[in-house]
Write a structure and sequence with these properties.
Distance between the termini: 34 Å
CATH topology of the largest domain: Rossmann fold
Shape: globular
Radius of gyration: 19 Å
CATH superfamily of the largest domain: NAD(P)-binding Rossmann-like Domain
Order of helices and strands: EHEHEHEHEHEHEEHEEHEHHHH
CATH class of the largest domain: Alpha Beta
Largest sheet: 7 strands, parallel
Helix content: 40-55%
Structural class: alpha/beta
Strand content: 15-25%
Number of domains: 2
CATH architecture of the largest domain: 3-Layer(aba) Sandwich
Strand order of the largest sheet: 3-2-1-4-5-6-9
Amino acid sequence: MTIAVTGATGQLGRLVLDELLTSQEPDSLVAIVRDAAKAGELAARGVQVRVADYSDPAALEVALRGIDKLLLVSGSEVGSRVAQHGNVIDAAKAAGVGFIAYTSVLAADTTELILAPEHKATEELIRASGLDNTILRNGWYTENYAQTVETAKQTGAVVAAAGDGRVASATRADYAAAAAAVLSSAGHEGRTYELSGDYAWDFKELATAITRIVGREVVYQPVSAPELVKVLTAAGLDEGTAGFLAALDTDTEAGLLATVTGELSRLIGRPTTPLLQALTSAAAS
């Protein structure tokens, strides 16, 4: 069985391959990358490296020949992802790939989360393709708050428009372990997994965790979304990015990231990584 992972030099894809290397022969694994120069470590470990961009259908079809199972790691170019993912799905079908797993977002077909529409559309393309599939609906990554730790270390405050909202986050390594479990074992076809951390923390708890990490008191300073946009643009972000981040906070306040399902810990066979432990590791790296 040959397993391929797209975005294999990215933050999630590389962790999936790390996990797969603990149970699979290296030459049975294929890293699909845009830049082979960034995949030297994977090649040195015996992983096959193939070059293809999500925007290059011909290269994708060549790269996916001989693949039994494929993990499509969602692209990072918000606004272009449906077309790019469609290219991968079409190439997989043309190349004879037997199974595809996709990293979606929690409750993609019902949530009002600002990031959800492209994931929902991709899920629909996968199901319409006729390929055997598993949808991995990932919740929030704890590492998304690594910059928050650095900023709070300087300012003594976590400034957010999240109100009393909670976040059931887990680490990328937790989600990577789930993807590896699906790719390396049978019985997941046709399943949609709603994946999230075992505990939904609030931003006061986030500030408390950061206090322990940075060695100074950090407090949570809730603001409105317009106020947050002003704070972020004053710090140098463009208006569009600031507005996007404020919208994510608004979604958090609405409880869209708070769902605890227990499916992630069941799939990986262990508890998800606690907030303090995850942030400590993220800060150290």
